[in-house]
Write a structure and sequence with these properties.
The complex is a heterotrimer. Chain B is mainly α. Chain B has helices spanning 2-6, 8-42, 44-59, 62-73, 81-104, 108-117, 121-151, 165-173, 176-204, 219-228. Chain B is built from 10 helices and no strands. The radius of gyration of chain C is 23 Å and the shape is globular. Classes of the chains: A mainly alpha, B mainly alpha, C alpha/beta.
Chain lengths: 251, 229, 307
């Protein structure tokens, strides 16, 4: 079996270099586009649902007791099981995995929004209020810009998980890069398996890099929110209660 | 429900297997990430490198990693260690960032005062930095724990059976009950681990029990408590 | 002072826990199967199964019959598709697996041409690698079968695979992913019958989603195992195979020769003698319709059939 590995890597690159694998509906570009499509759709829906929820509980501090444990429970749902139970009910279309993957993407996004708003110094919010900003203004013109790096961080974390998990969902007859994995597995086609994995990794890294860039750009000039190097020098005013399970997105 | 009763031995067999499969990656993930996080934090060069490697590790899709490990490292096909190694890699990748940031968040003043009082580097690390970073680490560990318990199910696609077996079998026979049992079982195991971690955290870090649950960001207040104790 | 001690204790505790867990995992872990090869020599047999319910039921039947005869057994269910569990067999991780004569022959000898039960079985003896053997084959068969809906069959006048050539609509076949390369799959349709079809990979072994795709019109043809009760239930038409693209698929135990003691061989041959196609259909009905678990079905069958 050890010898197979050495052959597999060169085979994988040969597989990637083969022009036949780049053509047509089962070719690499088409699968890539499908995968990006699934990911984009999932993120859009998850953001549409998760961001308002996270911003609401972060800004008003209400509903925390319900939403926080709820998102914790969402994280615990095994995505493979969720996809299967939905597929049994909804058939083999895209709806079942889409719902399951939106559920997967929600916790990091909600947590990112919540943690972001949490990290905003209370004094800044008070200052904004004293200058005359009302609720909505405080949220959109003060809190969100300061919280943006963490909010984007939450979406970034969700994106990575979603890209990786759409490959697992290819258990169903879907498109996307997962096809290269599931079609290769029963045939012990290690070349295709490796090649498919390389493609997924590259895609995930590119997306992650893109988000890192966006995160950097989203930090308003002169603001340290989300930059851990500055946590030491930040002023420490009493913050609102935060559930400790949010840490990874905060980073 | 009656299905659960009549098939309890099978459910508990796979449930126990699931439990056993979940523990080593969580523990090892934590244990390995602490020194790595310390290294990442200590030297400016290694921080970027380690975090990038962590990012790459996390991006590797689980299924191919499970399937390819036998050919990469010469383990046998059915050996659960393939799943364990992959899950540990993911746990380390997830924990690394949290550990690095948690250790970085410890106030420099506190570290200086520890040195001033006479703590050596090791004593300062285990006695001051690690406990202060504790709540952040615990939070990260809880997320790692939940995601590990969930990922164990994917092992069933390659023959390392856990509660994930019920997903595959239930899918082929259109047997909803089975799949639900698998889902609920996984969530229960995740819940048990989470509760254990919270209790462990409270036992090891009694100062966090005071006041707001996890005033993690208020490092100065924490350090005040720490020094007084 | 107290805190330093606590910090050190915590760290020490974590390391101790890790050490404990690791030793526990390598010794008492119910999953540690590095003992599988040792078991073989001590007379205990590990039985593997493929990733579909019928294989699992058969594995448990072998297991129950053998343990009733006094042989220690262990079952590793749901290993994967053929390539995977044969690799496990060759690696000594399992010693016995229920197999299907035709597909197994084509797996070991891709150039094989035998198609009838007896021809296939005879050829199989020669094709099985050294160190392994097949025991008596059962009269019962379960083959891949191409099925269409009654409406499709009537509309396009299709009752055999040869008729598919004349169908005007593009043909999509729902089957497991391995169908893309199997000689009785998509390539076989082309070479035996001149039929061009595309594969819609559905990973449920001819199960509910494959059925749904066929009944819903997403695909025109579906690969459903011949003993599956859903064929009769849904009035599907199984297409005839005049050129014998799909070889005979009698159930047969594939076993490592080391593990094939006289007692084991005798017991398994007795089991095989009783496995007719009707018996197999009955087993599957209990699984798919009554939703009984594989080992419960096996236990029932073994005790009913006097083992």
């Amino acid at each position: 079996m050890g010898g197979a590995a050495v052959n597999s890597y060169s085979d994988a690159f040969a597989w990637l270099a083969d022009p036949a694998h780049w053509a047509g509906a089962t070719g690499i570009p088409h699968r890539l586009l499908e995968h990006l499509g699934y990911t984009g759709l999932t993120l859009l829906i998850a953001i549409a649902i998760g961001l308002p929820v996270g911003l609401y509980i972060g800004h008003t501090g209400r509903g925390r007791e319900i939403v926080v444990p709820f998102t914790g429970a969402l994280r615990a749902l095994p995505t493979l099981g969720l996809v299967i139970i939905l597929a049994l009910g909804l058939g083999t279309g895209i709806l079942a995995p889409l719902i399951a993957l939106v559920i997967l993407a929600l916790p990091p996004i909600i947590a990112g929004a919540y943690a972001g708003l949490q990290s905003v110094d209370r004094e800044v919010v008070d200052a904004a209020r004293s200058v005359g900003f009302t609720g909505g203004g405080v949220l959109w013109q003060v809190e969100v810009p300061l919280a943006l790096p963490l909010i984007v961080g939450g979406i970034r974390s969700a994106c990575l998980q979603v890209i990786a998990t759409w490959t697992v969902a290819a258990f169903l007859p879907l498109g996307g890069l997962g096809r290269f994995l599931y079609d290769a597995l029963p045939n012990q086609d290690y070349a295709q398996l490796l090649a498919g994995s390389i493609l997924v990794i590259v895609l995930a890294l590119l997306a992650d890099g893109l988000f890192a860039l966006v995160q950097r750009l989203a930090t308003p000039k002169g603001v340290a929110a989300g930059r851990t190097a500055d946590i030491r020098t930040k002023t420490h005013s009493p913050t609102r209660k935060d559930p400790s399970w949010l840490a990874p997105e905060e980073a | 429900m009656s299905w659960l009763v009549s098939n309890w031995s099978q459910v508990s067999q796979y449930g126990l297997a699931h439990l056993w499969l979940s523990i080593p990656p969580i523990v090892l993930g934590f244990v390995l990430s602490v020194p790595l996080g310390w290294v990442a934090n200590r030297f400016a060069l290694t921080r970027g490198a380690l975090l990038t490697i962590g990012g790459i590790l996390y991006a590797i899709p689980s299924l191919p990693l499970f399937a390819l490990l036998p050919s990469l490292i010469g383990t046998r096909i059915l050996d659960p260690i393939n799943v364990e190694i992959a899950l540990t890699l993911y746990a380390v990748a997830l924990m690394l960032r949290t550990t690095a940031d948690g250790l970085a968040a410890v106030s420099g003043d506190v570290k200086l005062s520890a040195t001033a009082v006479g703590f050596g580097a090791a004593r300062r690390f285990f006695g001051v930095e690690l406990p202060l970073a504790g709540p952040v680490l615990l939070a990260g560990l809880r997320v790692v724990s939940v995601s590990t318990v969930s990922l164990v199910t994917v092992g069933s696609v390659i023959g390392v059976n856990s509660l994930g077996y019920f997903f595959i079998d239930g899918y082929q026979r259109a047997f909803y009950t089975e799949v639900w049992v698998g889902i609920v079982g996984t969530v229960l195991i995740a819940l048990v681990f989470d509760t254990l971690l919270v209790l462990l955290g409270r036992a090891l870090m009694p100062w966090t029990r005071r006041g707001a649950g996890g005033r993690r960001r208020d490092a100065l207040a924490q350090s005040r408590w720490a020094v007084l104790r | 002072m107290a805190r330093t001690r606590r910090g050190l204790t915590a760290a020490a505790g974590a390391l101790a826990l890790a050490a404990l867990v690791l030793t526990g995992c390598s010794n008492g872990n119910p999953l540690a199967d590095d003992t599988a090869s040792k078991k073989a020599s001590s007379g205990s047999i590990t039985i593997g199964s493929a990733n579909f319910p019928e294989s699992e039921i058969l594995a448990y039947i072998y297991s129950d019959a053998l343990s009733d005869a006094g042989v220690k057994t262990d079952v590793k269910a749901n290993i994967g598709a053929r390539d995977r569990y044969i690799a496990a067999l060759k690696g000594g991780e399992i010693q016995l697996v229920p197999e299907y004569t035709g597909n197994l022959l084509q797996f070991f000898d891709p150039k094989a041409t035998a198609t009838s039960s007896d021809d296939v079985y005879a050829a199989l003896h020669g094709a099985v690698p050294k160190g392994f053997e097949v025991l008596d084959q059962a009269p019962g068969q379960d083959a891949d079968s191409y099925n269409v809906t009654k409406e499709f069959s009537q509309k396009y006048n299709v009752t055999s695979l040869a008729d598919l050539k004349n169908v005007s609509v593009p043909l999509k076949v729902a089957a497991n992913p391995e169908f893309a390369t199997r000689p009785y799959g998509i390539p076989g349709l082309k070479s035996f019958y001149g039929v061009t079809a595309t594969l819609q990979p559905i990973n449920d072994g001819g199960g509910p989603n494959t059925l749904k795709a066929l009944l819903g019109g997403d695909v025109q043809v579906a690969d459903i195992y011949s003993t599956d009760p859903s064929i009769a239930k849904n009035h599907l038409v199984t297409l005839a195979d005049p050129k014998n693209m799909i070889a005979a698929q009698n159930i047969v135990p594939l076993i490592a020769s080391d593990a094939a003691s006289t007692k084991v061989k005798a017991t398994l041959n007795k089991v095989s003698a009783k496995l007719t196609t009707d018996e197999l259909s009955g087993l599957l009905t209990k699984s798919y319709d009554d939703k009984q678990s594989a080992d419960a079905i096996a236990k029932d069958w073994v005790s009913t059939n006097g083992f």
